[in-house]
Specification:
Layout: E1 2-6, H1 12-21, E2 26-30, H2 36-42, E3 48-51, H3 59-64, E4 70-73, H4 83-88, E5 93-95, H5 101-116, H6 119-127, H7 133-137, E6 147-151, H8 155-164, E7 170-174, H9 181-186, E8 189-191, H10 194-200, E9 203-206, H11 220-225, E10 230-234, H12 243-252, E11 255-260, E12 280-282, H13 291-309
Helix pairs in contact: 1-13, 5-8
Amino acid sequence: MKRILLTNKYEGIPLEIVKSEVPNGFQIVFVDDLTQDALETIVPHADYILAGGRLRITKTVLEKASKLHMIQRSGVGLDSLDLDAIKEMGIPLYVNQGVNSQSVAEHSLLLILASLRRLTEIDSNTKLGIWNKQGQGIKTAELAEKTVGIIGMGNTAKTLVSLLRPFSVRILYYDVSRQNEKYEHDNNMQYASLDELFKCSDIISLNCALTDSTRHIINAVSINKMKTGVVLVNTARGGVVDANALYDGLASGKISFAGIDVHETEPIPNEYALSKLNNVILTPHIAGVTSDSFRKMMHSAFRNIDLFDKGMLEEIKQYRFI
């Protein structure tokens, strides 16, 4: 029986969902301890890897994976994979791009709205018996007719654009490639430089991949270019934001509120500076995980592995990344 090695740990209902999606003829195995050493110990027994985002698929891991036929990413981010090594060793890599874009886009919008309305702060005050309707309300803002800056324009960002339509916002976006003129016109979008986006946006949403060029794209210098009172939301990758600079921006009021789903160190450390602030919402890299999206991700991932094993490569060619 062929073995699929899962590099994430699942418990309870998520584990039940995973088990329910395993194709006939396969056995799933897990890394007992979520460490690189444990992964390197067990990977020689794997025919397939279903790669999560916690452990890195490095060249060392791949060199020990003597039976490996293919790698399937459970999510869509690639920063945990040594792409150069995967290419060099000729290992097929499959990624179901867009599989959780609806979930991440909805979470992005949720954080935008909750930040504009300072929802967590007002919820906490209300539970403490503070009933200051006008005093608190005047500090909040509506999303309608604001300028939203979006960094990155992949599947998630495009889904977010569609969710923003009813709010009649103006969208500035920055990406490595420009969208066509009709798409820009239909969505009240304008391609902008990073400097222009920072300068003009009321809200900035990070929806880009983590690369050498995007690492710490939000830093002390870029924050200084932003409007005072800007709202910042990150559902991309923790590494695109310098957390120390973000803390300073929030503490000074330059950034009025932030919604942060992804963090440079995950799980977050006990002494995480952002945890001490009232004007930030923190979530545990959960934007892409709902009951709906998790089932879809697992079903699609195991389906790709099953079809690959059967040699039905035409059926899954659109998901092949390498």
